[in-house]
Write a structure and sequence with these properties.
The structure holds two protein chains of two kinds. Chain A contains 16 helices and 27 strands. Chain A is α/β, with parallel strands linked by helices. A five-stranded parallel beta sheet of chain A has the order 4-3-5-6-7, with helices on both faces. In chain A, strands 12-13-14-15-16 form a five-stranded mixed beta sheet, with helices on both faces. In chain A, helix 4 packs across helix 5. The termini of chain A are far apart. In chain B, helix 1 crosses helix 4. Classes of the chains: A alpha/beta, B mainly alpha. The interface between A and B is medium-sized, with 27 and 21 residues.
């Protein structure tokens, strides 16, 4: 089944139910379905959109993003939601990488969108939510919709093995990679996750996770599949504004990342009525400290707490059944329903319990590869059991206990996790080297109780150069998403290097974590 | 002594690199991308130390903290009620 058919089905089943509750009001399934139809028709009408074309949604968490996602699918296209804190250079990279036909943005992001689109010749139209019509290529969202037919006639969007979305993720080389997911992939993942979360059409889910982040995106996708209600918040900057909504809207599901959990457990004025309707809490992106798990269970006594692990390349890999949480609080559990995971050695052979190796994932949720990047794809997707099957080598080191539960051990590459987001040190270092006066740069993660890892830049300045930490952070803030901007900057006279002159980032990382580092020259 | 607004501006400029020196006093720090959830914690800790006032959980709302102007008014209000209580 194609994913947009699930919206049609939910609208048919209960069109009057609230699908999305957002800042501007409540949108029912019937209204959502009609908005997606109109968006699809507008793509074809204004941009000559064809099956397989890409539509990039550079928007924050709002109803129009949801309408754009389902509208693009209904037009037979492929959508990609891009984090609103993305800067022009990277947005331009993404637009060129996927050769986007249409870019949808909002008034507050228009300047960045324009600068990026100027460097991306494939973009035929920029559509601006809350904007006014500008030059010939730019359309205001309301006008974009109203000048188009209500729905496409005699149009076949394709079948379920078609590509549906690209999710851009940080790579260790520093360039983002577009994870390719088909409709089948998405239906498989959503079915598996809603099964173990025991979701039903009566659920009300509150999500403040960005729709550009697959964890946030799937809250929308899963609610549409179940016909349940999604409360879509923009951020968790002010928990005092979000948490009372749990009670006011009788929320049953509340997805978290560790940074949110850290903010919640330190509240002194937490009102138990906020937690009364919450049936489940989920956590992913990085492990929760056991102390936070215990405190969350105390604060949300009715809630089942799910520790989960995943990566964009297969959406979700494992979950810990909540009843196991007390016995193995540091485990991320077992393979999600309908999939398999195992720990493998370097040759790809399965390892037994209590041996550390790479986690390998098998199932219908595994991506098709990285968009136009066969080399990177070949590094992670490898031959599976059958000639047509490919399995995902996650690059994450795991071990399994005697009862078959899995534990995250570390990354094989340099990737860091900060605020639950994957951070490529290389990507930040590339930006740092563009700042005149910086001779050497290394990014490390400092353990941090709230962020997981707090990013620190260790720099060597060129002779005579004068830069303050603020200059460095301001430069980074102008070129990187917020979560990639270093929180601290340290200047040194020299950085440790290998015999071949490569900076020993791993040694600096070990130092940051207070670990001993065994030098091996490579 | 420097005005509260000048001290707040200096703090915001030094700690949130996205900000420019002349961010309008009534501009939302959140919407303009200057502050995030960790930034709010940093700001609250600074206000408590710098002005010797206690910021309760329920004070951490945009009405009190989401622009230079609001932060200044919040500090003034809190400082007044703290000194009245002495």
């Amino acid at each position: 089944m194609r994913y947009e058919e699930l919206l049609r089905e939910s609208a048919r089943r209960h069109g009057e139910r609230a699908a999305i509750v957002h800042e501007e009001g409540r949108t029912t399934y019937a209204e959502f379905d009609a908005a997606a139809d109109r968006f699809a028709a507008a793509l074809v009408h204004h941009a000559g959109f064809e099956n397989g074309d890409r539509c990039v949604l550079f928007l924050d968490n709002r109803f129009e993003t949801a309408a754009g996602i389902f509208g693009t699918l209904r037009a037979g296209g492929i959508f990609s939601v891009i984090n609103p804190t993305t800067k022009a250079d990277k947005l331009a990279y993404v637009l060129n990488n996927c050769e986007a036909t249409v870019l949808v943005t909002q008034a507050s992001l228009l300047e960045t969108a324009r600068v990026a689109a100027l460097q991306a010749p494939s973009v035929r139209r920029i559509v601006v939510v809350g904007g006014s019509a500008g030059d010939s290529g730019t359309l205001d969202y309301a006008g974009f919709l109203s000048a188009a037919p209500a729905r496409l006639q005699n149009h076949s969007p394709g079948i379920d093995i078609d590509l549906a979305m690209l999710v851009y993720t940080s790579g260790s080389t520093g360039q983002p990679k577009g994870v390719m997911m088909t409709h089948q992939n998405m239906v498989h993942a959503a079915t598996s996750i809603t099964t173990y979360l025991r979701n039903s059409e009566d659920d009300i889910v509150l999500s403040v996770l960005p729709l550009a982040f697959d964890y946030g995106l799937y809250q929308l996708l899963m609610c549409v599949k179940m016909g349940s209600t999604l409360l879509l918040g923009k951020s968790f900057v002010f928990p005092q504004k979000i948490l009372p909504m749990l009670a006011a809207e009788r929320v049953s599901g509340f997805p978290l990342v560790p940074t949110m959990a850290a903010l919640i457990v330190q509240l002194k004025n937490f009102d138990p009525t906020w937690a009364a309707s919450v049936r489940y809490l989920t956590n992913t992106a990085a492990a929760l400290p056991p102390a936070h798990i215990a405190k969350l269970q105390e604060m949300f006594p009715q809630a089942r707490v799910y520790s989960m692990y995943g990566m964009t390349e297969s959406k979700r890999c494992t979950y810990l059944p909540p009843e196991q949480l007390a016995h193995r609080p540091t485990s991320v559990g077992i393979a999600i329903p309908g999939t398999e995971v195992w720990v493998a050695d370097d040759a790809g052979q399965r390892l037994g319990p209590n041996v550390v190796g790479e986690l390998v994932v098998r199932g219908g949720h595994v991506m098709q590869g990285y968009w136009r990047n066969d080399e990177a794809t070949a590094r992670v997707l490898k031959q599976g059991r059958y000639p047509w099957e490919r399995v995902l080598h996650t690059g994450d080191l795991f071990r399994m206990d005697d009862e078959g539960y899995f534990y995250f051990v570390g990354r094989k590459d340099d990737i860091l996790k900060s605020r639950g987001e994957k951070v490529s040190p290389k990507e930040i270092e590339n930006v740092l080297y563009a700042l005149p006066g910086i001779r050497e740069a290394a990014i490390v993660g400092m353990p941090d109780p709230i962020l997981g890892m707090s990013l620190k830049a260790i720099l060597v300045l060129a002779e005579g150069a004068q830069l303050s930490p603020r200059d460095v952070m301001a430069h980074c803030a102008a070129h990187l998403e917020d979560f990639m901007v270093p929180r601290t900057v340290e200047f040194r006279d020299a950085l440790p290097k290998t015999n071949t002159g490569k900076i020993r980032r791993a040694a600096l990382q070990a130092e940051a974590e207070g670990r001993a580092f065994e030098a091996e020259d490579s | 002594m420097e005005s509260i607004e000048a001290r707040v501006r200096t703090f915001v400029r030094e700690n949130f690199p996205v900000s420019s020196a002349d961010v309008p006093a009534d501009k939302s720090l959140l919407e303009s991308g200057i502050i995030d959830s960790i930034g709010v914690l940093t700001l609250v800790t600074w206000i408590e130390q710098e002005f010797e006032i206690v910021v309760a959980d329920e004070d951490v709302v945009p009405e009190n903290l989401d622009s230079i102007e609001r932060i200044v008014r919040f500090i003034e209000r809190k400082s007044n009620s703290a000194s009245e209580g002495k």
